[in-house]
Amino acid sequence: MSEARPARPGLYYPKLPATWWLRRPGYVRFMLREVTCVFVAIFLVELLVIVYKIGQGPQVYADMVAKLQSPGWIVFHVVALAFALYHTITWFQATGVIQVVRVGDRQVPPPLVVAGNYVAWVVVSLFILYWLLVRS
Amino acid sequence: MTEETITLEVTRYRPGHDTEPRTESFSVPYRKDWVVLDALNHIKDRVDGSLTYRWSCRMGVCGSCGMMVNGVPKLTCSAFLRDYHPGPIRVEPLANFPVIRDLVVALDDFLEKLRRVKPWLIRETEKPVSEGEYRQSPAQLEAYKQFSMCINCMLCYAACPVYGLAPAFVGPAAIALAYRYNLDSRDEGYRVREPILSDSVGVWECTFVGECSVVCPKGVDPAAAIQRSKVAGAKDWAMSVLMPWGGRK
Questions:
Q1: Does residue A103 belong to the interface with chain B, where contact is any CB pair within 8 Å?
Q2: pTM of the model as a whole
Q3: What Cα–Cα distance (Å) separates residue B144 from each residue in A97, B155, B219, B220?
Q4: Which pLDDT tens digit goes with each residue over A17-36?
């Protein structure tokens, strides 16, 4: 964070309280978007542990899978999925604001840019599903 | 029949007397066609002449009458009492700015930042007047027009928690205006503005809360200007690394 500005005498300098993010719904949504990274990071660590366990043999991996079926882990995965979806949707929304796409002289309307993300998401997801369920 | 009234809870601060702002309640006539500024003018004319606030055009153009109305940055000349009925309506000075007196905030920090981004046309060499004006096509005008609608009302700064937490941040309106001139086909000042925009207190200080664009009364979308400046700056840096002999814009 940057340095404080020099104070002029006679002026009242308001301070933002630690609860500033509760003042407006937009601030709360922003903080939720920031918090998503915590859940995504925990899930990525979990994924790395799973890959490591696979390398240690079928029995170790089966024990790991059994552990992940506990109610606590299931709740975590549901919450992590909700945050990951929230992050994805807000990220897609943001591309409509950030990315200017031009065709010739005309700018592609931002909703179409956002829609392009969703189409790409569906196509990639279907390809992965096909690859996992049909090919393997 | 008694006239219907609405209560305004107005922030008062007298330099030299008060150590911090306090709230004073005023009962004003409730008229459906009155805006908050009309109610403040009524208080100043009929109740307490010492109430201090800024206003000028009264038609949403000059940007002088920006205040917090029920916690939201608003131009008080376009905030109708009927939208807050039955009240009370809380009127405070613009958030994140130092308060001079009552509802008047200090502008100098914003004006210094505005000057810093050089919001005017910069040419490497000026052509003589005899050669005529700089011509521009409708498409070239359209490229920056949205960002030229800023009226410097500073509502975006009041909505920006980053500016509240880190006052050195150049901020939404100044960056939107810098971006507006960078997009202008007549301008050649990108290189001059780049160090200001890519500074640690420039575009990279923004965490994309996005509320600056929500409160803008002119639909300028400063958040878009900042994020697009980030993309432009990142591309520019990448090109300077990949093609140091002249890949930059």
A1: no
A2: 0.90
A3: 15, 21, 13, 10
A4: 999 999 999 999 999 999 99
